[in-house]
């Protein structure tokens, strides 16, 4: 029994050694994905549980930071998708966003563009969406994205190129044509 407690203690220490330095970055990433404090907290809990369950994999991963952030971002997207399916207020989030955007005179152009960009990124195919988010929003380098997603750098570049083209089409109304 004592040996088991020692093993649990060393795993807990390892968990904290990996996760604690990343907590501010994890918090920012989750809030950017969910845009809601409660949802970010839910995603954080799911991510921490997943990291704990996969600690043996995270520990030996060539880039544990990237894997931890990938798990967290995946958790954020999961929670965000769940919110859209089962909204607490009974009103779909898209309808809430529409009613809120009717007061567009009070919103800045930057806020509108940011929201449209996030929505456009979310509507992309999953791999393109993840690559675009990490590249354009989180400002990760191609090599970091490839390591985190465990795909080649040329594949990441291709996903980003396709995402960029789709985003340009979807956000064309925001581009100046003077």
Describe the structure in brief.
With 178 residues, the chain is mainly α. 77% of the residues lie in helices and 0% in strands. The chain folds into 2 domains: 86 residues, Rna Polymerase Sigma Factor, Chain: A (Orthogonal Bundle); 89 residues, Winged helix-like DNA-binding domain superfamily/Winged helix DNA-binding domain (Arc Repressor Mutant, subunit A), CATH 1.10.10.10.
CATH homologous superfamily of the largest domain - what is it?
Winged helix-like DNA-binding domain superfamily/Winged helix DNA-binding domain
Low-confidence stretches: 87-96, 102-106
CATH architecture call of the largest domain = Orthogonal Bundle
Mass-distribution shape: globular
The whole-number mean of residue pLDDT values reads 79
| The first-level CATH class name of the largest domain | Mainly Alpha
Describe the oligomeric state of these chains in a short phrase. single chain
List how many beta strands DSSP finds: 0
- At the fold tier of CATH, the topology name of the largest domain is Arc Repressor Mutant, subunit A
Distance separating the two termini: 74 Å
Helix content: over 70%
User: Element order, helices and strands?
Assistant: HHHHHHHHHH
Main beta sheet: none
């Amino acid at each position: 029994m004592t040996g088991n407690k020692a093993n649990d203690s060393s795993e807990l220490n390892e968990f904290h050694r990996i996760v604690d330095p990343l907590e501010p970055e994890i918090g920012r990433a989750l809030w950017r994905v969910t845009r809601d404090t409660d949802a970010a907290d839910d995603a954080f809990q799911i991510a921490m549980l997943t990291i704990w369950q996969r600690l043996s994999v995270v520990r030996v991963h060539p880039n544990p930071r990237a894997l931890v952030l990938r798990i967290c971002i995946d958790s954020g997207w999961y929670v965000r998708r769940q919110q859209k399916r089962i909204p607490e207020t009974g009103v779909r989030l898209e309808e809430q966003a529409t009613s809120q955007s009717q007061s567009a005179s009070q919103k800045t152009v930057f806020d509108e563009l940011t929201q449209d960009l996030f929505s456009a990124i979310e509507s992309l195919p999953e791999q393109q969406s993840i690559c675009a988010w990490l590249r354009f929003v989180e400002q990760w380098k191609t090599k970091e994205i490839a390591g985190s997603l465990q795909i080649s750098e040329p594949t990441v570049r291709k996903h980003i190129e396709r995402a960029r083209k789709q985003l340009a089409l979807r956000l064309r109304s925001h581009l100046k044509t003077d």
